[in-house]
Amino acid sequence: MCSTKRLSSAKCPALKFVVVISNAPLRGAHNYAEVLNAVDTNTVEGYHVNPEETGVIQLSSGTTGRAKAICLSHSQVVNSSYFLGKRLGFDKAQHIICVQPPLFHVFGVVGSISNAAHFGATLVFPAPMYNSTENLKALENERCTLIYGTPTMYIDLINVQTQLKKKLYAQKAFIGAAPFSPELLAKIKDKLNVQQILPGYGATETSGAVFVSTSSGLTVGQRINDGYIIDHAEVKVVDNCRNIVPFGIPGELYVRGYYTMKGYLDDPDSTREVLDCENWYKTGDQFILYEDGSGKVVGRMKDMIIRGGENISPTEIEKLLESHPDILEAQVIGVKHERLGEEVCACVRLKAGVELTLDSIREFCDRKISGYKMPTQLRIMESFPRTPSGKVQKFLLRQQFSE
């Protein structure tokens, strides 16, 4: 039995217990296995759980600033993970899943652990912390049939696979948490020997996925999208006056349903900013909804570049730049300009041993995008500022180049 002694910390007075998963002893902390063994079956069976009580508190990604604590109920986690697994076909076939996203991310908790518990899937956690080499080794050694990951994680996997050339067995790749280019999807199929790619879109505030691909994935010639509306969900795309826009026209995505968060912990003001009186969650994402129920992210509303009165979506330019054979990853931001308000700045990670100039970038983009969207500044990056879950923090990029 583990000790019930509480911690006492002057720096963090609210912290009472620390539980470690590692077998290595840590002074003042409880071991995870001991905590599990400390509770018997009778105690668990005698405890009544209210489905609407908070079951999980997850931090937001922190892509726009300080992370917020998001309260999700037991019901939200259980239902979101169930309908995700059903959409991915877990009720029809068993999978061995290589889980690249961290377990403190909604992709890890709802999309992986809870999802697998519903359908009896096998989860493979390659390493205590994110490591693309270990992820690739696990794909081969455990003969994983499905990969979970963000676009950045797939880029890393492809780079490692190019060097190590492992024998891979994965049939499907589930991708989400950030925009991706058609070129990346093609590389995933080619380099990782994947037959089907399953896109998804969601947020921590929505307990995970709101749009998910069908189990057959994207097909040849199909319009690239982020999946189809998940079962029993409501969505709408609105303009600046909150009027619903026609199908195929970009606007801000609002969503509502069983999956919408209870709110931000002890932060009613921030909660009211994103949840209206009818419980619509304002995602802050510029989105296109199609008549067949599919949709795709165009970009973040806050990331929109306004150059001389013209609205420019960074995502469009990023996808074009990532189709360049020498560019691994691209981020596009607006930088201040005295006359135009903002100009387009391309920040890129390059393949080893190559060099690119602004002129060569502009030549590559010529006639592929409108002239006013052309990058006028170029920054070569070794890495991008990221959240612990791997998302790029564009607000830090903007701060870095505004100084």
At a glance:
It contains 11 helices and 21 strands. The protein is of the alpha/beta class. The strands form 6 sheets. The chain has a 7-stranded mixed β-sheet with strand order 6-5-7-8-9-10-11, with helices on both faces. It has a 4-stranded antiparallel β-sheet with strand order 12-13-15-16.
> Can you tell me the CATH class of the largest domain?
Alpha Beta
Instruction: Using the CA coordinates, give the radius of gyration.
Output: 22 Å
Mean pLDDT: 90
State the shape.
Answer: globular
Largest sheet: 7 strands, mixed
Helix proportion:
25-40%
Number of strand segments: 21
How far apart lie the N and C ends? 55 Å
In total, how many domains does the architecture comprise?
A: 3
The quaternary structure here is single chain
The CATH H-level superfamily of the largest domain is: ANL, N-terminal domain
Q: Kindly report the spatial arrangement of strands forming the biggest sheet.
A: 6-5-7-8-9-10-11
CATH-derived architecture of the largest domain: 3-Layer(aba) Sandwich
Low-confidence stretches: none
Write up what this structure looks like:
- The chain has 403 residues and is α/β, with parallel strands linked by helices.
- It has three domains: 47 residues, no CATH class; 247 residues, ANL, N-terminal domain (Rossmann fold); 99 residues, 2-Layer Sandwich (GMP Synthetase, Chain A, domain 3), CATH 3.30.300.30.
- 26% of the residues lie in helices and 26% in strands.
- Strands 6-5-7-8-9-10-11 form a seven-stranded mixed sheet, sandwiched between helices. A four-stranded antiparallel sheet has the order 12-13-15-16.
- Strand 9 and strand 10 form a beta hairpin.
- The radius of gyration is 22 Å and the shape is globular.
- This is Medium-chain acyl-CoA ligase ACSF2, mitochondrial.
- Acyl-CoA synthases catalyze the initial reaction in fatty acid metabolism, by forming a thioester with CoA. Has some preference toward medium-chain substrates. Plays a role in adipocyte differentiation.
- Keywords: Ligase.
